[in-house]
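Long-time lurker, first post. I've been practising inverse folding by hand and with some scripts of my own, and I keep getting stuck on stretches where the structure tokens seem ambiguous. Below is the full token string for one chain I'm working on. Before anyone asks, I'm not after the true native sequence, just a reasonable design that respects the backbone. If someone could post their per-position residues I'd love to compare against what I wrote down in my notebook.
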């Protein structure tokens, strides 16, 4: 049995208090972190690696056009990584999926990071596309999947309902705290989540024990961290 802490966090393009952001990511104590609005375009890889190093992590997957990435702790071994742009919708931002198959002790896991659109039609399409692509990548390894992301809608809406129907909404399965993630200064909505394959046991899922000032200053979202167990 392997216990892992997996997080998801929207960084708002590092436009806020980066030292506070580093402290929050470090406080997550996560073995794997799914990032959204990570550094993009020219130099994205070097900037993601630099941020990861400041948090004691390393970059294992990224999609630079879409600003999604996966970070991992040093002890987690990378087996395979892919990144994909999702279907392009005319007039909307490019959306992508960063994916990695990792080995944590004896267990394999496929983890993906996605940032869904503000447009409802694109959001629902990309939710289904992300789940399908992540499963397709994981299948040759027999790895269960975890998808983390900024869903940009609440749990009662279609894309979230789709994700929670295909996978387990970690917070709904084992809630810790109120679960609200947006905005960081006045959290009223749960729009960021982690979704795990049914065979993964969710021990707990919720926020991060960091200072209120750091959480409010780091970015406009709050992070989500789930503790899960594999191989039970």
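-- Answer (accepted) --
I ran through it position by position. Result:
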């Amino acid at each position: 049995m392997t216990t892992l802490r997996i997080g998801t966090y929207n960084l708002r393009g590092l436009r806020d208090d980066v030292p506070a952001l580093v402290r929050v990511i470090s406080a997550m104590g996560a073995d794997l972190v799914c990032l959204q609005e990570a550094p993009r375009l020219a130099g994205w890889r070097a900037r993601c690696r630099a941020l990861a190093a400041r948090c004691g992590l390393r970059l294992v997957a990224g999609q630079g056009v879409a600003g999604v990435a996966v970070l991992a702790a040093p002890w987690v071994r990378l087996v395979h990584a892919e990144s994909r742009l999702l279907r392009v919708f005319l007039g909307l931002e490019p959306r992508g999926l960063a994916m990695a198959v990792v080995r944590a002790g004896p267990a394999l896991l496929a983890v993906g990071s996605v940032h869904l659109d503000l447009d409802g039609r694109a959001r629902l399409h990309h939710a289904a596309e992300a789940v399908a692509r992540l499963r397709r990548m994981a299948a040759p390894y027999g790895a269960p999947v975890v998808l983390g992301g900024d869903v940009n809608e609440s749990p009662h809406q279609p894309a979230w309902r789709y994700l929670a129907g295909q996978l387990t909404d970690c917070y709904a399965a084992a809630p810790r705290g109120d679960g609200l993630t947006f905005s960081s200064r006045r959290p009223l909505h749960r729009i960021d989540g982690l979704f795990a394959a049914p065979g993964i046991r969710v021990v707990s899922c919720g926020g991060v024990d960091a200072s209120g000032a750091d959480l409010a200053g780091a970015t406009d979202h709050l992070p989500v961290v789930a503790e899960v167990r594999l191989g039970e």
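A couple of notes from the structure itself: The first helix runs from residue 18 to 28. Residues 2-230 form a domain with the Deoxyribonuclease I; Chain A fold (CATH 3.60.10.10). Happy to go over any region you disagree with.
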